[in-house]
Amino acid sequence: MPQPVKVRQADSLSSLISSIWTSSSGPGSSALSAAPSASAQPIISYPTTKGPPLLQIGRYNCTSQMTFGLLTGLLEDFLDETATTTGATITFLNLNIHAAATLADPDQPAPLLSQAQVPQSDDTLSAIVKGNLSSLLYTPATLAEQRADLNSSWYDVEWDNIPAGGYYSTSKNTAGNVFTESGWPTEALMEFQQFKRVIVGFGTVDKQMEAYNINDDLSNIFPPGTITRERQVSFASDGQVDSGCYFPSSTDAVTSEFNASFARATPPSINAGQNPDLMSPILSVSNLTRCGIVPFLNQSLAGTTADKNPLPYAAYVHSTLWSWAPGQPLNATRASSTANRCVVMTNSPYPGRWEVGDCATRLRAACQDPGKPYYWEVSADKSEYTSAETLCRSPLQFAVPHTALENEYLYAAWQRSSAPDEPVFVDLNQLGTADCWVIGINGTCPYLQSTDTNRTRIVVVPTIAAVIIFVCAALTFFIKCASNRREDRRGRGRKMLDGWEYEGVPS
């Protein structure tokens, strides 16, 4: 989300905004049409008729109210509204830092800013980010601390929340602690255990901003190139990716040459209608996703904005999906305990996409090397889903793809197999909980509170607690009674004389 740094570069601009706002009495005020030059013209009042004006200065639209602090505050409100187990996701905030041109030449390149013109102390980017998002911020310092001791961080979770092997290398230090210099924790660890939902990083930083020392921000904001990596991609006229795709069928190595988790590219111009078919993916967007690259939308669709017509944008989002086929998953059949409760990869009409299937059908299984996430095989034998894990040869395991690239490698392995048209089981089901897809036969739904099925414990624990409370109450009662008896005995030896209390000496 590109945002300019607040630049203290032109007192004349601040004076201009102040004078326009001070002399404006409402819509249609003559002050709004007054301007020092043709290149600096206020055009509307924003956000209300009583708010500060929006100024069009060359190619810039400026307002004194739209600050970075306001934007982070809006993001904080959004995160509060979506703080549920089903609504929570990780939000990436990417900051492209630009210097504004001068008021005299707004369309010319910005000048090199001096130290006095860049933000200082409390106005730094990290200070503003921490001001609104500190409790939700996953920082470089946190990542470094976790990488230094995986046993007490990434590995101190349920087995299905441990980061997939093969994407990072580990070593042991002299204290015997496992550490890594690469890799990231799972989303489940970040959101549900540490309650972190925002990752902020630098994108591009203009040369004119070199006086602004971003090193002071790097404990809270990731350095440039960390959470974004521009990928050079070319497309054919039919939407196929000619070059830049991360999927080569000749190798299954996970290297920077063939994998980049934060790679992104802009698809070619998209001609989406006002009422597109959401079941038909946009080919250039879909193919870019299958290449392991995030499609970056940097254009308006169908000549409209999402608030006026969201359908073209919904079609774009649907095209970025790589797992479920359009219209999937279907509801489980109530008449059967196995129908529509397991997942298969199909070849038609959406090659490599997933559909629901009957767990009782005998099919082959998708098998993955746990140390090589891009190495997949399809089992030679068939079975029902409940026995599918026995079909994979060691060290391969029955698995489900976790990324678009893993899915492509599985699809390629399937197409090389002896039966490329028969559906293949992947390890995903809703046998235990309806409408909640989990990995493995005994997988637990992450969106439901765990219940204690040990009936003995359910009864014994409250009973013990009740007994302890009763004993404490009884002790309190007897101690109080004993204390009162002592006081009563002492009181017998006391006498009152003219309002004064005297205690007699026993004879």
TrEMBL record:
GO CC annotation: membrane
Membrane topology according to the record: Single-pass type I membrane protein
Domain of life, source organism: Eukaryota
Transmembrane region(s): 458-479
Function recorded in the entry: May be involved in telomere capping.
Keywords tagged on the record: Glycoprotein, Membrane, Signal, Transmembrane, Transmembrane helix
Ranges for domain MTC6 partial TIM-barrel: 61-302
Keyword field contains Membrane: yes
Protein name as it appears in the record: Maintenance of telomere capping protein 6
One Pfam family hit: TIM-barrel_MTC6
Similarity field: Belongs to the MTC6 family.
Location in the cell: Membrane
Organism: Curvularia kusanoi (Cochliobolus kusanoi)
